[in-house]
Amino acid sequence: MIIFIHGADTFRSRRFRRELQEKFQKDIDPNSVSLSVIEGQTANLSDVAEKLGSGSLFVKKRMVVIENVFKNKKEKIFTELAEYIKKLPTKDSGNDNVIIFHDDNLTDKPLKTSAKKLFSLLLKQDYNQEFKNLEGNQILSFIKKEAENLGKKITAPAASELVSRTGGDLWLISGSVKKIAFSCQEEAIAIEHVKDMVAGSFDENIFGLTDALSTKNIKLAVRLLEEQYGAGLEEEYILTMLIRQFKILLQIKSALENNLPPSSIATELKIHPYAAKKGISQVSNFNIPTLTSCLNNLIKIDWKNKTGQSNIRTELTLFLSSL
Questions:
Q1: Measured between alpha carbons, how far is 97 from 233 in angstroms, rounded to an integer?
Q2: Residue 229 β-bridge partners
Q3: What is the pLDDT of residues 58-72, one digit of tens each?
Q4: Structure pTM?
Q5: Domains of the chain from N-terminus onward
Q6: Which residue, 6, 37, 14, is CA-closest to 236?
Q7: What is the pLDDT of residue 137?
Q8: What is the DSSP string of 192-235?
């Protein structure tokens, strides 16, 4: 079985994938010995074949998750994977293995020919799920359902205020609803609850955290991280934002060392001017090896979490303490 998960809405796509993995662990493989996650950006065909061919003698069915394969710079991987998929035995022949291809938005930039062929092949699979960004009433319905899952109702004005304060970011919305639901004694979440407990954009908090890290103020960094947990944000979202920020810092540092004028950073790297300005001030306290090491460690934390080897909160605390 091949499952293709993709789309710009990373919150719902990651939740769906997590549910699939948890179901596999519960029903098939409680010890996760036959569940593998492959980093698609650097993977080759042998990695996939090896994971499908390995596993426990007591668990015949295997699940292999291939993440962000369309970011791989080696074009031959797309042709090789397409041919490999075509030759896979069907479930009717006794093949119960599950391969999950999980990518973010694939429509924001054109794919090369070989990648297009793999993409088209995956779209033809029986289990193909695209998660587009929710809009308007769809976001309001999402908020209502999130509240109901926590045993709460939410008024229409409160839901609208939440959208306004979070910019429609489902990661922020979910964390905010959870925070309010656990604190609110009333049956329904009202607009006053949202105004009191939802600060707004997370970007400033991320800048503050990376500022603290750049100046080696670990005590402040740990406190800021704890504040984000206290605000109800999910650990996975915080980690995702940290990975994104360190990628940006590494790009900025590399650009500056290659003599790109600071005034051109935002345009050349296609990032917001404010983010570029903040990043330029932060990277003066970092060197390329340190930024690379930080990014690799954060990616490793992400991988360990997805494979059930650790939890994000513990690993992030250890990460901060090691700097």
A1: 34
A2: none
A3: 567 889 999 999 988
A4: 0.70
A5: 2-130 (3.40.50.300), 137-197 (1.10.8.60), 203-321 (1.20.272.10)
A6: 14
A7: 94
A8: HHHHHH----SHHHHHHHHHHHHTT-HHHHHHHHHHHHHTT--H
